[in-house]
Write a structure and sequence with these properties.
Elements: E1 2-3, E2 13-14, E3 20-25, H1 34-80, H2 86-122, E4 134-137, E5 142-147, E6 153-154, E7 162-165, E8 171-177, H3 178-181, E9 189-193, E10 201-208, E11 213-216, E12 222-232, H4 236-239, E13 249-252, E14 262-264, E15 269-271, E16 274-281, E17 284-295, E18 299-304
Length: 329
């Protein structure tokens, strides 16, 4: 139908079943050309004839049913008087039942023919008003997120007009590599960063979707990614600053331990199958094999091989080797 101009603006509040979103004027039926009108008129005449034929069959079935009912009553009376055998009663009952079913089928044919006749006749009804207006109201409490259609226009069925949502229940969708997503569990803490404010916002993993998808990275490499859904734990006034389809960066906390010895990942050196660092002892570099635990982009936890307070070399170059003299800068 024809939707009238939508006055709501993005950000306007809406109330469920109260706020008027849009008003429709149902479209008037299309005019029929001469050929189409002649064809429809012929179908109307055929439908009229079919209805008359169905009614005639129904009248005949009604008369036959009435006769079968009278025959059954007479046969039962004669059987009670001993003047008619029991087999005649059974035959009369069967005949009466058959005629009743035939009458029911004939009545169904009449209803079907009448419905077909009314449907064909409706095609000849053109003009005379388009019916009452249809008012579309907000399905939920919230705000207008997007106004997709603004000006008055005729729209097809299923055309989106306005997006509304409750920004107080906003969630974050972050896609991770599938190799990383297998380590993420619902309930884990999340740091929401680079959202436009100061400190990082707290959040928690709501769920990890079970199906991945292929995404091409900035380097042109196809990657299997998985969507991780995150709930905000921030205060309402802070969370309200975020809106639909805003960009943020998130870090999921896979594990957290207090009092852990750690070193910068820039100090880690791979030697064969083990990790090591170059510690500074007596003005010289000393290679110390270590065992690391959890790590992120900044630090690695040390399980063994170093003591608290040890001085290590960050970003050791090719000239740094075991026993080389070094000077702190």
């Amino acid at each position: 139908g024809r939707v009238l101009r939508i006055e709501l603006e993005p950000g306007d509040p809406v109330r469920a079943n109260r706020t008027l979103i849009a008003t429709f004027q149902p479209a008037a039926p299309a005019l029929l050309d001469t050929r189409t009108r002649a064809e429809v008129t012929a179908r109307v005449q055929a439908a009229d004839a079919a209805l008359e034929r169905a009614r005639a069959v129904s009248d005949q079935a009604a008369a036959e049913r009435a006769m079968a009912e009278r025959t059954l009553r007479r046969t039962r009376e004669l059987a009670l008087s001993g003047l008619s055998p029991a087999g005649d009663v059974e035959l009369a009952e069967t005949a009466a039942r058959t005629r009743r079913e035939a009458f029911g089928a004939a009545e169904a044919m009449v209803r079907s023919a009448d419905a077909e006749r009314r449907a064909v006749r409706a095609q000849l009804q053109v003009g005379g008003g388009s019916g009452p207006a249809i008012q579309l109201r907000a399905p939920v409490d919230g705000v207008v997120l997007r106004r997709i259609r603004e000006s008055e226009a005729v729209v097809p069925q299923g055309e989106p007009l306005v997006e509304v949502g409750d920004v107080g229940r906003i969630e974050i969708v972050a896609d991770y590599l599938s190799a990383d997503a297998v380590r993420i569990r619902p309930g884990q803490r999340v740091h929401i960063e680079r959202w436009g404010g100061g400190a990082a916002l707290p959040g928690r993993v709501q769920r990890v979707e079970p199906s991945g998808f292929t995404k091409v990275s900035a380097l042109g490499v196809e990657e299997q990614r998985v969507n991780v859904i995150i709930d905000l734990d921030a205060p309402m006034d802070t969370a309200a600053q975020l809106g639909d389809r805003y960009r943020v960066e998130v870090r999921v906390v896979l594990s957290s331990n207090a009092g852990v010895l750690r070193v910068p990942v820039s100090a880690l050196v791979r030697q064969g199958e083990r990790w090591s660092v170059f510690a500074v002892e007596g003005g010289r570099a000393v290679a110390r094999p270590i065992e690391i635990g959890e790590r992120n982009d900044t630090f690695a936890a040390i399980r063994s091989g170093l003591v608290e307070g040890a001085v290590v070399i960050a970003f050791p170059g090719e000239k740094v080797a075991d026993g080389v003299a070094v000077v702190a800068q």
